[in-house]
Design brief:
By secondary structure, the chain is mainly β. It is built from three helices and 20 strands. The strands form five sheets. Strands 3, 5, 6, 8, 10 and 13 form a six-stranded mixed beta sheet that branches. Strands 1-2-4-9-7 form a five-stranded antiparallel beta sheet. Strands 17-16-19-20 form a four-stranded antiparallel beta sheet, with no helix packed on it. The radius of gyration is 38 Å and the shape is elongated.
Length: about 325
């Protein structure tokens, strides 16, 4: 009983395919849209108008040697704050978007070994649905509670096929960069070791369409070492409307010495956002050496000046008076 109740709290975020073209498959079971008469589909991609109802079909396949029972539900998708990957709300969480609009024709299905079951799905678009992209998934959760790795807690696994819906209306792409932080990790003596700093920032989709942002970092000011600009990687390829992610990127060869600012700029679908953080990189070891040399130089200079003043204070020796010539005797 304890393991089952814990499993609901620790339900693994449903595995979504890394790209719309990939299959939602974990090696044991998969969920995908039923193929259309024209072409196979890896995801539900549906245009929508407020107030309409859409119907489609999904195929749940079991590739194992035993029958599997799944709980089916439609869930909202979101970006994880850790790395920006796509995940969905759990079965017990409140659904507010696509998850609240959709419902499979059966909540529970049992799929025989090495077989597949086709299930209908209905999506009712509210009259007040906001224009733009809405993303979710049809999720199949295994009813088995499996032991978690290295713990006594139970875990349930799920797989989901993505649902992409674009509600009619004006499209407004928008992206911002917030809370930029530049953390330098440079050697005490410049150019004597590896320098690998970190740039952290928050990327937010402020528009109503999904974005594939491009992010770059630029250094301005007076500095030595490191390139002036570089492209950042590990940026989510799909940032959903209203979502934000906190990202960090290592920066080998960042500026070693100088001062200025580090700007992070994101662009996507004609929108642009940027943020910056100032930096002051001082080689404290060299500064200490310079301070020590300056102190020694000043000490030597003071001693020399003191010696000169002391020499000037001693009066010069007076020359001895010249000897008077002896007078000749008057008797000579």
């Amino acid at each position: 009983m304890r393991a089952a109740s814990v499993a609901l709290l620790l339900l693994v975020l449903t595995a979504l395919s890394p790209a719309p073209a990939g299959a939602a498959d974990n090696g044991e079971w998969s969920v995908k849209p039923a193929d259309s008469a024209i072409t196979p589909r890896a995801a539900f991609q549906l245009p929508a108008r407020p107030g309409t109802t859409l119907s489609d079909r999904a195929v749940v396949s079991n590739t194992t040697d035993r029958a599997l029972t799944f709980r089916l539900y439609v869930a909202d998708a979101h970006n994880t704050e850790r790395d920006g990957g796509l995940a969905v709300r759990g079965v017990e969480e409140t659904q507010r978007d696509v998850g609240a609009w959709g419902k499979p024709e059966r909540d529970v299905i049992t799929v025989p070994p090495r077989s597949a079951v086709t299930v209908g799905i209905t999506l009712r678009i509210p009259q007040d649905a906001s224009p733009g992209d809405h993303v979710g998934a049809l999720v199949a959760v295994d009813d088995r509670v499996q032991p978690g790795t290295g713990s006594h807690l139970g875990v349930q696994r799920g797989v989901g096929a993505r649902i992409y819906m674009r509600v009619d209306g004006p499209e407004r792409p928008g992206v911002t960069v917030e809370d930029v932080r530049f953390t330098a990790r440079n050697p005490s003596i410049p150019w004597t070791g590896a320098a690998e700093s970190t740039v952290s920032y928050t990327l937010r989709n402020t528009g109503n369409v999904s974005l594939d942002p491009r992010v770059s970092v630029h250094v301005g000011g007076v500095y030595l070492g490191g390139p002036a600009e570089r492209r950042l990687t590990n940026v989510p390829a799909e940032l959903l409307p209203g979502q934000k992610v906190r990202l960090s990127a290592s920066w080998p060869g960042a500026p070693l010495v100088g001062w200025g600012d580090v700007s992070v700029t994101a662009t996507a679908d004609g929108s642009r956002g940027s943020g910056s953080d100032g930096f002051l990189e001082v080689p404290w070891f060299l500064m200490g050496c310079l301070a020590l040399l300056s102190a020694v130089g000043l000490t030597v200079l003071r001693r020399r000046r003191k010696a000169v003043r002391a020499a000037q204070a001693v009066p010069a020796a007076q020359p001895a008076p010249a000897a008077r010539p002896a007078r000749s005797s008057d008797h000579e």
